[in-house]
Every structure is written in structure tokens, then in C-alpha cells.
Amino acid sequence: MAEFDYQWKYTLEKDNLENEEDMYECNEKRIKEFLEQFKNKNWFFKKPSFKGKVCLDAGCGPGRWTCALQKLNASKVDSFDMSHEAITRCKKINPNAYVFDIMELKENHVYDFVLSWGVIHHTNNPRKAFSKLVSQLKKGGMLHIMVYDKRNDWFYEGYRGEPTQKRKEWNSLTMEKKLELCKEFAEKKGGNVHGWFDALNPEFNWSYTKEEIKEWFGEEGFSNIKLGDMGFNINMNGILE
Ligand SMILES: C[S@@+](CC[C@H](N)C(=O)[O-])C[C@H]1O[C@@H](n2cnc3c(N)ncnc32)[C@H](O)[C@@H]1O
């Protein structure tokens, strides 16, 4: 089982799966949230926004942003994820969804828009993963990433960021205990079991400052680098020169 298979198979709440829109979390609220990230831009976001754009959703999960891009009239969305479970779900909304590891990407500058939301901080080398994403983008195209913000590591009470003692404890727990702990966190701090499991279970959970991420964009030759509006995580995008 790939690392994220368990959560995509078991921890999504039953209530969330009762209709297709919710299953992919592809509803008006999500689309609005998605577009909020770009509201300062003047490239994609003059109407008709994503219409006609060739897009890549790298680390798509079950496909909530794939679905948003489709609803925003992208001409094509390719979606990949290393989790088979995620792709089994995503394939239901996108035939161009496949199992793949970001680290295996080869240079292929074909996309107008590359999105990688909440993914590269789970790889063993996020900076390298970032370059892999850039290697898929056309000149003049946009890359958008979401990564964890170092400033909010405290919220996870030692299970994320340094020191790592709590991480060791987490790794020693049975699945049942892990889910119990997620339930406790959800009751205490809000959110749901799936969200907490998603935050705590991955082997790698790197977090960054916005200055660090801005530097990556700069090093790779992006201009127009902008921070999105979701305060808790870092959402950043730029245009490849
Ligand atoms: C937190 S989920 C985010 C999913 C989706 N982007 C979203 O916002 O709903 C992280 C996803 O990244 C995928 N992932 C992690 N490392 C990956 C890699 N090296 N290559 C491809 N996918 C990866 C996981 O399988 C998981 O589905």
C-alpha cells in the first residue's frame, strides 16, 4: 500500500461520500477558495480564466482541484498521484488520471498551468520536487503550490516540525490508536479525522517560510510571484519567464 492509500480508502467520512460533488469536494465553496488564490493576477484570471488551458494536477489525490479545473473549463487536465486509491477515485472524474511519482517526471514543457497542492512537503526532497514541477511548464505558464507554513507547526503539538519525539511516538502507534488520536484532535481543535490523519501520518511533513518558497520560485526563473490568500498554509504562484 502506498503511503496515502489508507487515508483515501478508509478515512474519508461516509457523510462526505454521499454525493459526487462532495466526494470530490468539488463544489462552489472549493472553486471560490481556489480562485481566491489568484485574485491578484492578471494572466489566467481575466475571464474566461482557465478556459482552454492545458493543466497538470500533480499529486491530485481523489481530484478535488482536478474537478475545479474541469469546471473552470480547462481544455485538458492531466492528474497523477502515487496513491492507487487516489487515482481509482480520480479516474471516475478524469480519464487522464494515472499513478505516478513526481520524482520521476522528465522534462516536458507542455502545461499552461501546473498545480501541486499539499504534495511536495510529503516528498523526501521538496526542493527537487519543485524543480520537477517546473520542468512540466511552458514559458509564460503558471505554477501554483501549497506547502505547510512553519509558523503553524505549533498547532500540531509536536507531531509536526521539530523536535521529532512526538513523530517517533506516532510511528509506534497502531492504526487504531492513530485514528483515536486524530479523533481527539478533531474534537479538541476542529476539523475531521481524515484531515488530522492527512496532517500527521505522512513520513515526510516538511514546513517552510514564505521567504524560502519565494526564493525557490526566484531561483527557477519565475516572475510575478504572489502569495495566495489562505493564511494557514503557504499558497504561492508565479509565471515562468
Ligand atoms: C495531502 S494530499 C493532497 C491531495 C490533493 N492535491 C488535494 O489537495 O486534495 C497529498 C497527496 O500527494 C500525493 N503524493 C505524495 N508524494 C507524492 C509523489 N512523490 N508523487 C506523487 N504524488 C505524491 C499523496 O499520495 C497524496 O494523495
- Terminal CA distance reads 39 Å
What is the residue-mean pLDDT, rounded to a whole number?
86
Please give the CATH class of the largest domain. Alpha Beta
Radius of gyration: 17 Å
The CATH superfamily of the largest domain bears the name: Vaccinia Virus protein VP39
Summarize the amount of helix as a percent range: 25-40%
Count of domain modules: 2
- Outline, from the CA principal axes? globular
Q: Please state the structural category.
A: alpha/beta
H and E string: HHHEHEHEEHEHHHHEE
Please report which band the strand proportion falls in: under 5%, 5-15%, 15-25%, 25-35%, 35-45% or over 45%: 15-25%
Indicate the low-confidence ranges by residue numbers: none
Helix count from the secondary structure assignment: 10
Largest sheet: 7 strands, mixed
The largest sheet has its strands arranged as: 3-2-1-4-5-7-6
Number of strands: 7
Per CATH, the architecture of the largest domain is 3-Layer(aba) Sandwich
